[in-house]
Amino acid sequence: HHDTTLRNLAAKNIIVSAILLVGNGRDSAGNPHNMMTHPDAEVRGIYSIPNLTNEDSTRFYRAALSLIAERWSRLDGANGRISNWIMHNEIDQAGTWTNMGQQPLARYLETYLRSARLMYHTSRLYDPYSRVFISLTHHWTKKSSGTGTYVVRDMIELFAEMARAEGDFPWGIAYHPYPLDLRNPDTWNDAGLTQDFDTPYITPKNIEVLPDFLNQ
Known about the structure:
The chain has 6 helices and 6 strands, in the order αβββαβααβαβα.
């Protein structure tokens, strides 16, 4: 099914970005359906962060990454092509979209960084131009409501620091430039935003703050 879609997109010269999600499905006893679900993931999470807590689950995850990277990076394009790999979804709202339970930011990012680095090294075995991205919401210095959430600016700064400490690799940001009110697209009326790095949100109204911050 994905092959058909990707071949059609390739025929139209459309660059494809794929969002990689790890299931958090459970059986009747509440146990995860497969070993890729993190053992600390809460049932409430729609998706889980990958389980990199032991060798078997890590090899299983790496095998899955290798399978999809090889399949959709073939030189003959027989199955279509994926150029950009977006690692999981809106990680600042981890409790909902990339659940690992209640974790300090550093512990959460250590697992997330390993997942992103695994995808980078694996995909580049097949495509030297493949790219890896971090998925974030439009929050910036204001933390999302609810539990299992983090401040986006803190995440980017710490991720960059941790990546450099272990040997940096090319990574980018798949930012979700929502309007302030997700149900109202008149972003030009977004109130309370600033043009500096302390703005509570980054929306299309002040999107230039993001590249300015990253250019540091």
